[in-house]
Amino acid sequence: MTDRALVVVRPGMLTTVQDLGRPGYAHLGVPRSGALDPPAAALVNRLAGNGPDAAVLETTLDGCALRPRSTVTVAVGGAPCPVTVGGRPAAWGAPVVVPAGELLEVGAVSAGVRGYLAVRGGIAVEPVLGSRATDLLSGLGPAPLTEGTVLPLGRPAGPAARVDTAPRPGPPAELVLRVTPGPRADWFTARGRYDLTARAYRVSPASNRIGLRTEGPALERAREGELPSEGMVLGAVQVPPDGRPVVFLADHPTTGGYPVIAVVRAPDLPAAAQAPPGTPVRFVPVGRH
């Protein structure tokens, strides 16, 4: 039994292991997966003294609780939340030392959706296709955390950052997604294309790591029926039969048969990971370059 490990005391609503994901395997039907908010995951890794490819924990809404078997340095970021060590308040957004056997509690978020927890040395579960990421769609990677799960840790690669706190954008009050026309925009009427970028939408409670679903006006179709399955990219705005746009996120399927009316610019997707249900969504048209 290694002492370089974390024991899960409270797994939270949904806590998964994530890293940079598995890009490059779409031709095999394997989704990209990886952290939904890559800048937040990268920041906690830097704070903990890890390289950018180290695996972290991604929490959802209510955090998690862990007990290290040896003294570790951690950093919690992403959605703001309280952090305690042994019942005492600890820093969010900065390196924190957790003594062996003490309880590290990552609390419920005060804004946003997803928190990130890095441990110096990284989460060292067995990689699958070069990644330690949990993929909820395909089932690849480690299962979501459950009580009693033991997470092995890697060897430290460098010292923790020397900062009091690190600046980080807050969760969006309004989710602004810049879009370029998709390959099947012509499957929608002029009115349908206009409504996408002119009407108001909200984040649906049915959103998950696969896609951000929206509530709002249905987009009017020019063509009925569905397509043969074709390749899907990260950020694709697919329109299912109910007419409400769905933005594909990290665990999205690699193919799909619903028409893609637009594609969201990649730099706008991390904010989608932190937009709770009810957040206003605005699709903004931009050029193709």
List the helices and strands and how they pair.
Blueprint: E1 5-10, E2 16-18, H1 38-48, E3 56-60, E4 64-68, E5 72-78, E6 83-85, E7 88-90, E8 95-98, E9 104-106, E10 114-119, E11 150-152, E12 175-181, H2 190-198, E13 201-203, E14 211-215, E15 230-231, E16 236-238, E17 246-248, E18 255-256, E19 260-264, H3 269-273, E20 280-285
Parallel strand pairs: 12-20
Antiparallel strand pairs: 1-4, 1-11, 2-3, 3-10, 4-9, 5-8, 5-10, 6-7, 6-9, 12-19, 13-14, 13-20, 14-17, 15-18, 16-17, 16-19
Provide the gyration radius in Å. Answer: 20 Å
How much of the residues is beta strand, in percent? 25-35%
Distance between the termini: 54 Å
- SS elements, strand count: 20
**Inertia-based shape:** elongated
Major sheet size, sense and barrel closure: 7 strands, mixed, barrel
Strand order of the largest sheet: 12-19-16-17-14-13-20
Structure description:
Residues 27-289 form the Carboxyltransferase domain. It holds the Pfam family CT_A_B. There is one protein chain. With 289 residues, this protein is mostly beta strands. The chain is 9% helix and 29% strand. The chain contains three helices and 20 strands. It has helices spanning 38-48, 190-198, 269-273, and strands at 5-10, 16-18, 56-60, 64-68, 72-78, 83-85, 88-90, 95-98, 104-106, 114-119, 150-152, 175-181, 201-203, 211-215, 230-231, 236-238, 246-248, 255-256, 260-264, 280-285. It has a seven-stranded mixed beta barrel. Strand 16 (236-238) and strand 17 form a beta hairpin. The longest helix is centred in the N-terminal third of the chain and has 11 residues, at 38-48. The protein is elongated, with a radius of gyration of 20 Å. The model has no long low-confidence stretch (mean pLDDT 93).
